[in-house]
Amino acid sequence: MIKISRFDKSLAEPVHNGTILGMKAFSSGMGEPFSHLYGHLETNGIMDGNRRGHAHPTAEIYIVMAGAGFVIIDDEEAAVVAGDVVEIPRNAAHTMENRSGAPLTWLAIWWP
Domain range holding 30? Predict the structure, then answer.
């Protein structure tokens, strides 16, 4: 059986203190060696509610799936669009910001 995943706003739940919507991307039981979540920001929003963002001891990758926005990592800012892959180092403060009139969706993948 072919399994295809895509972000579905109606199945997503508030995460990061309610500042974004999140949804698992892969079926449970696949045994993947990483954790993952779709992240979704509506128009003119910012994850974590501020530009300082959050940090954790794991490296992380964001794959931008739809829309355009900005990634902020340790006071550096870069524009991102669908198809971009962002590498986030361990312990780096980071967030995503959407200043546009269209939603921004990405896939976050992290591992110990």
Answer: 9-110
Task: Say whether pLDDT at 71 is over 90.
Answer: yes
Could you give the 3-state DSSP secondary structure of residue 19?
Answer: coil
CA–CA gap between residue 6 and residue 77 (Å, rounded): 27
CATH code at 35?
A: 2.60.120.10
Q: Is the pLDDT of residue 84 over 90?
A: yes
The whole-angstrom separation of Cα 20 and Cα 23 is 10
Q: Is residue 53 part of a domain?
A: yes
Total domains in the chain come to 1
What's the whole-model pTM score?
A: 0.92
Question: CB neighbours (10 Å) of residue 5?
Answer: 13
> Does a structural domain hold residue 30?
yes
- Spatial separation of the C-alpha atoms in residues 38 and 60, rounded to whole Å: 13
